[in-house]
Specification:
The structure holds 2 protein chains of 2 kinds. Chain A is an alpha/beta fold. Chain A is 36% helix and 24% strand. In chain A, the strands form 2 sheets. Chain A has a 6-stranded mixed β-sheet with strand order 6-7-8-3-9-10, sandwiched between helices. A 4-stranded antiparallel β-sheet of chain A has the order 2-1-4-5. In chain A, helix 3 crosses helix 4 and helix 5 (141-152) runs parallel beside helix 6 (171-186). The model of chain A has no long low-confidence stretch (mean pLDDT 87). Chain B has helices at 2-17, 19-48, 63-75, 89-97, 111-130, 157-188, 194-201, 223-237, 240-252, 254-260, 266-298, 310-334, 338-356, 367-372, 377-389, 399-422, and strands at residues 52-58, 78-83, 103-107, 148-151. In chain B, helix 2 packs parallel to helix 11 (266-298), helix 3 crosses helix 6 and helix 8 (223-237) runs antiparallel to helix 15. The mean pLDDT of chain B is 84. Chains A and B meet through helix 2, helix 3 and helix 5 of A and helix 1 and helix 10 of B.
Chain lengths: 249, 426
């Protein structure tokens, strides 16, 4: 069995309307079952890297493999391996949670029975029992974030990409999301996670990479990094490595 | 197949919850069809059945002017209000401006005298030519002061021309009678007997109006037969507002990001949209046809007569709907924002309708437009529908309209495919 979930070799990506590479010389390995955190200042390239890993962006050079499958060449096969929770609300606001889950479940290739069983579980876990048939546009931000995650884990993916999954939610929704992610990871799903909530990341991630200006600056377990840089927490480490200046201007 | 079914269900759920979209797709075209048909029908009835109010001011006291008034009355198309002879042109203009009537006719003073003189001159000239009179009786034509025809500016040129034609024919009747009378008097020294005058001046030849149809039936086309097909096509193409913006909204929303990371092609999504919206266009057509058949007669409008070949009607409606959807997908795939899709979509449909002959009949267009019109898919849709509704043809009779329509549809599909490839959506 391959124990490398994600392998990135010498990755380079340039946006079509730009001349400078947004990502360059990226090498990264994420093992199966890991809870991997990808951090960096705004505009560092976190979302771009996630989008390359999920096949949303076509990289120009290098290689990204999910369980040994090159993302570029095997889109359909690779797409079966992972779930994705983007920053944006990725569902239909006109539909109810049940209708959204039924639609995306069908597109994941799940059969009716599996969709029904998983939908019941997720509706219960994420607290939609009373609103399962109401259109999503009436939901609060926290409820929408929970539904975003529910759809991302619908097919019980081997890898789950999470791009700032808890942005703009209250403490209750955040705890529900983090708690569910830990449970999912215990069942074998590899998590690849980006966030600006560093205390949340400390709680969730067992390995961390810091990306600055499209390059991986450090990549190690959190205790190792804190020891090397003599810091007590991720926030101090982050400031030490990236500086105090604005990075997105 | 399950993916496609789920996607169709999703599209139907979203579509049925979009109330504004439903109004644009169903209610607006129905209102449009009713209003345009009612307007055209009332224009038709105004000219052919109802009488046009007319102010008639006869400043002459002679016999010819009375005959002219009599002839105008006999035309049967005017509701005449006789005005005292001393009414000024300015006062009549004011009454028209106040919409007491839309037309006024002023017969100038000395009209009868001048008509008599000219009739004399013509009669003598005719008899001279035939050798019945000698040259000493030669008389010259005099200039008759024109009859004034006042009209309200809201009257369209075509309507004014038809009124003027009717007035000219009335004047000609009077002049011809006078000449005839004079010739008869010069030859017989008695007046023309009334029965003879009537026999000579009244035509007994009727015009038999025959609508040329392919199936040999002689159904007279009405405003409904013209308008329902035209506005059904317009409604079908106006689906661009709903479908075009739906595609853009999906592209811009987070759901599209997720769709791209799922183990299924975006082509399924587009295929589903085609099926869903094709169903909508067929439903639109059915609703509008049903209104033409059942509601129009209740509203006093002519009933829609469906073509005899219903299978052909289904095929043509299906192809027109598919073409409309293909066009909407083009707009949706290439537009970056919903505003772009709505703006480009709406304006281009109106333009294609205008050059396609939906707003102005194609035969009335300038020659340069006759070629451009063939580029509009709406033109071919209209030709195909008219082939069935007006000419009562079959599918084989309208193949020359269907083939270009299919070609344009395939071209639209190709453009959509290229756009999706270019934007890395498939």
């Amino acid at each position: 069995m391959i124990n490398i979930a994600v392998s990135i070799q010498n990755l380079e990506f340039i946006y079509p309307d730009q001349t400078d590479a947004c990502l360059h010389g990226i090498y990264l390995e994420v093992c199966t079952g890991q809870r991997f955190g990808l951090f960096g200042p705004n505009g560092a390239g976190k979302t771009t890297l996630i989008n390359c890993m999920t096949g949303l962006l076509n990289y120009q050079r290098g290689s990204i493999k999910l369980f040994g499958n090159e993302v570029k060449n095997n889109r359909n096969e690779v797409n079966k391996l992972f779930g994705f929770v983007p920053q944006e609300f990725s569902f239909y606001q006109e539909l109810s949670p049940i209708e959204n889950l039924a639609f995306f479940g069908a597109l994941y290739g799940m059969n009716k029975a599996a969709i029904r069983a998983k939908t019941e579980e997720l509706i219960d876990v994420f607290g939609f029992s009373d609103v399962s048939n109401k259109p999503v546009h009436k939901f609060s931000g926290g409820m929408k974030r929970r539904l975003n995650l529910a759809i991302g884990v619908l097919n019980t993916p081997q890898i789950l990409f999470l791009d700032e999954p808890t942005v703009g939610v209250d403490i209750h929704s955040r705890q529900a999301i983090i708690s569910y992610l830990k449970q999912l990871n215990q069942k074998g799903t590899t998590l690849i996670y980006t966030s600006h909530q560093l205390n949340e990341a400390e709680d969730l991630c067992d390995k961390i990479a810091l990306i600055v200006d499209g390059k991986i600056l450090v990549n190690d377990s959190l205790p190792n990094l804190l020891g090397i840089y003599n810091e007590k927490g991720l926030e101090g480490l982050f400031i030490k490595l990236t500086g105090k200046m604005y990075r997105d201007i | 197949m399950y993916k496609l079914r789920a996607t169709i269900l999703k599209d139907l759920q979203i579509l049925t919850r979009d109330r504004v979209g439903m109004i644009v797709m169903f209610v607006m075209p129905i209102i449009l069809a009713i209003v345009i048909t009612a307007t055209q029908n009332s224009t038709f009835e105004l000219v052919n059945k109802n009488k046009v109010p007319l102010l008639l001011c006869n400043k002459d006291t002679g016999n010819a002017s009375l005959q002219l008034v009599n002839s105008i009355e006999k035309l049967g198309m005017f509701q005449i209000q006789k005005i005292v002879s001393n009414e000024t042109e300015e006062k009549l203009a004011k009454r028209i401006h106040e919409k007491e009537a839309l037309i006024a006719v002023i017969i100038p003073p000395d009209f009868s005298n001048k008509v008599e003189l000219n009739a004399n001159a013509t009669a003598i000239k005719a008899l001279n030519n035939l050798g019945f009179q000698n040259d000493t009786l030669k008389m010259n034509q005099v200039t008759i002061q024109p009859i004034s025809f006042l009209y309200h500016p809201i009257l369209q040129v075509s309507f004014r021309q038809s009124v003027q034609s009717a007035l000219f024919s009335a004047i000609q009747i009077v002049q011809s009678k006078k000449v005839l009378n004079k010739i008869y008097f010069l030859l017989n020294e008695t007046s023309l007997p009334e029965t003879l005058e009537s026999n000579i001046s009244n035509t007994n030849i009727a015009i038999n109006e025959i609508a040329v149809s392919i199936d040999g039936t002689k159904t007279i086309p009405n405003a409904t037969q013209h308008n329902i097909p035209a506005w059904t096509i317009f409604a079908m193409f106006f689906i661009v507002i709903s479908l075009g913006s739906n595609i853009v909204r999906e592209k811009l929303s987070g759901s599209f990001i997720r769709l791209k990371t799922l183990p299924s092609s975006y082509l399924i999504t587009l295929f589903s949209k085609q099926i869903t919206y094709l169903f909508v266009t067929l439903l639109q057509a059915s609703v509008i046809f049903a209104i033409g058949i059942w509601l129009f007669p209740l509203m006093g409008l002519p009933k829609l007569n469906l073509p005899l070949d219903l299978m052909s009607l289904f095929v043509v409606t299906f192809i027109c709907g598919w073409c409309a959807i293909s066009f909407a997908m083009c707009v949706g795939v290439y537009s970056e924002t919903q505003e772009q899709a709505n703006g480009i979509g709406a304006v281009s449909v109106v333009l294609m309708a205008a050059i396609g002959g939906l707003l102005v009949p194609s035969f009335a267009m300038p020659e340069s437009f006759q070629q451009i019109m063939k580029l509009s898919p709406l033109h071919w849709c209209l030709e195909a529908f008219y082939g069935l509704f007006l000419e009562r043809g079959k599918l084989s009779d309208i193949l020359l309209s269907i083939i270009p329509l299919l070609a344009i549809t395939i071209l639209f599909q190709l453009i959509v495919f290229i756009g999706l490839k270019k934007k890395n959506l498939i």
